[in-house]
């Protein structure tokens, strides 16, 4: 970015230009499709970046929001509401967690987990344990703490001093991880499936090893399932494939299907320091978000829904593997699981994404020159076929170019 021409300060964009926004105005969505203001129909295989897992304008979720909007929007966390108690209880019943705190976004939920972890060690009389280990390529959001954990150049450069307390090891390297644990280490934070960092799943064995290391050294294990959770891998949460559990977990994105929400889940032990006055949020847990979260859970936990996601995920995976085989000059690798996959590109991923967009298929980049495919979980095999035909066409053109 530093070599870009200096911005024209007399003509500065009214929206801070931190995103390279595509010149398309979307007006309406329906299931796996988006419609722009010119009436063009697009297949949406990025889903607001893993957010609209039930597709756009899902009737059950839309109705829940409308109904709640006519009743009550907010009362603050000074009072109780039933939608809030209900969603918290359901998340507790569905997971390892004993307790939940709701926030308004992913990074806020992640940061609530970091605070929970630090507070835990201070509460049990070990305040010297405050450092958190992350893996290279991780993404937890854009607050000062989250960029300190990620350490990616484009995120931290110019924003110093960068917050202390985050150490990093090579992605997937257990030897480096063990060597990095010191008497000041409090926790390990990790995405069970690396999202922004390149769509790379950690194996069930690896997750179990992480659990063992945490138990051995008395650390808390903190999963970020903001992208890979809420059914995206074919289980409600990705770590369920490994039959183990973290101590703390943050979720967001698909929990609201587009309505801003985040949640930090923890065991009672890990959350023991989070008592009255220690943390808060004005909007967190508001009835609108809670009504939506409950409606999303209704759909995702309905019998057969997740098995269907797994089946469609396998189908998409087969199709993508086939594309890699047939277009070695364009795609060098397929990675991911469930309905979150990436194709590593030979040309730049941004060129491929642009070409796909011209053909009305929406995807998004990830690190390591990957194109991410994040279809809504309600996608059908027919729509997957439609999308894969576009990828095939673009790859054929690209190979010939
Ligand atoms: C998107 C994402 C976040 C940040 O969520 P925001 O709602 O943008 O703050 C954090 N972690 C992971 C794994 C994500 O994919």
Please trace the helix and strand order, writing H or E for each element. EEEHHHEHEHHEHEEEHEEEHHEEHEEEH
Helix content: 25-40%
How widely separated are the two ends? 28 Å
Tally of structural domains: 2
Profile the largest sheet: 7 strands, mixed
Can you tell me the CATH class of the largest domain?
A: Alpha Beta
Briefly summarize what is shown.
36% of the residues lie in helices and 18% in strands. The chain is α/β, with parallel strands linked by helices and 401 residues long. The protein folds into 2 domains: 9-58 and 304-400, Alpha-Beta Complex (Aspartate Aminotransferase, domain 1), CATH 3.90.1150.10; 72-300, Type I PLP-dependent aspartate aminotransferase-like (Major domain) (Aspartate Aminotransferase, domain 2, 3-Layer(aba) Sandwich), CATH 3.40.640.
Describe the structure.
The protein is an alpha/beta fold. The chain has two domains: 9-58 and 304-400, Aspartate Aminotransferase, domain 1; 72-300, Aspartate Aminotransferase, domain 2 (3-Layer(aba) Sandwich), CATH 3.40.640. It contains twelve helices and 17 strands. It has a seven-stranded mixed beta sheet with strand order 4-12-11-10-7-5-6, with helices on both faces. A four-stranded mixed beta sheet has the order 1-2-3-15. A four-stranded antiparallel beta sheet has the order 13-14-17-16, with helices on one face. Strand 8 and strand 9 (200-201) form a beta hairpin. Helix 2 (59-69) runs antiparallel to helix 9 and helix 3 runs parallel beside helix 9 (287-300). The mean pLDDT is 97. Bound molecules: pyridoxal-5'-phosphate. Residues 105-107, 110, 139-141, 191, 195-196, 224, 226-227, 252-253 line the site of pyridoxal-5'-phosphate. Pyridoxal-5'-phosphate binds next to helix 4.
């Amino acid at each position: 970015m530093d070599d870009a021409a200096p911005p024209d300060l007399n003509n500065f964009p009214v929206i801070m230009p931190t995103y390279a926004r595509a010149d398309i105005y979307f007006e309406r969505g329906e299931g796996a499709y988006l419609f722009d203001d010119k009436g063009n129909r697009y297949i949406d295989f990025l889903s607001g970046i893993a957010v609209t897992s039930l597709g756009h304008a899902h009737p059950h979720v839309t109705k829940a929001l409308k109904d709640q909007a006519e009743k009550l929007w907010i009362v603050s966390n000074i009072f109780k509401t039933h939608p809030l108690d209900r969603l918290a209880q359901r998340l507790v019943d569905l997971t390892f967690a004993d307790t939940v705190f709701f926030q308004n976004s992913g990074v806020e939920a992640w940061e609530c987990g970091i605070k929970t972890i630090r507070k835990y060690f201070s509460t049990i009389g070990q305040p010297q344990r405050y450092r958190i280990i992350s893996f290279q390529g991780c993404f937890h959001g854009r607050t000062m703490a989250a960029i300190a954990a990620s350490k990616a150049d484009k995120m931290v450069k110019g924003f110093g001093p960068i917050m202390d307390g985050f150490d990093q090891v090579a992605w997937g390297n257990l030897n480096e991880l063990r060597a990095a644990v010191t008497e000041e280490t409090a926790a390990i934070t990790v995405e069970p499936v690396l999202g922004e960092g390149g769509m790379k799943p950690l194996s069930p064995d690896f997750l179990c090893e992480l659990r063992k290391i945490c138990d051995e050294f008395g650390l808390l294990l903190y999963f970020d399932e903001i992208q890979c959770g809420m059914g995206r891998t074919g289980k409600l949460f990705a770590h369920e494939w490994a039959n183990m559990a973290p101590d703390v977990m943050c979720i967001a994105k698909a929990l609201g299907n587009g309505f801003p929400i985040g949640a930090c889940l923890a065991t009672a032990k890990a959350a023991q320091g989070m008592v009255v006055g220690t943390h808060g949020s004005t909007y967190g847990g508001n009835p609108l978000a809670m009504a939506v979260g409950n409606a999303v859970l209704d759909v995702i936990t309905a019998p057969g829904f997740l098995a269907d996601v797994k089946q469609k995920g396998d189908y998409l995976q087969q199709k993508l593997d086939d594309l890699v085989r047939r277009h070695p000059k364009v795609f060098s690798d397929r990675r991911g699981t469930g309905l979150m996959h990436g194709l590593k590109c030979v040309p730049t991923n941004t060129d491929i994404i642009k070409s796909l967009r011209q053909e009305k298929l929406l995807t998004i980049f990830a690190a390591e020159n990957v194109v991410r495919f994040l279809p809504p979980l309600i996608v059908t095999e027919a729509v997957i076929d439609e999308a894969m035909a576009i990828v095939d066409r673009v790859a054929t053109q690209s190979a010939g170019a």
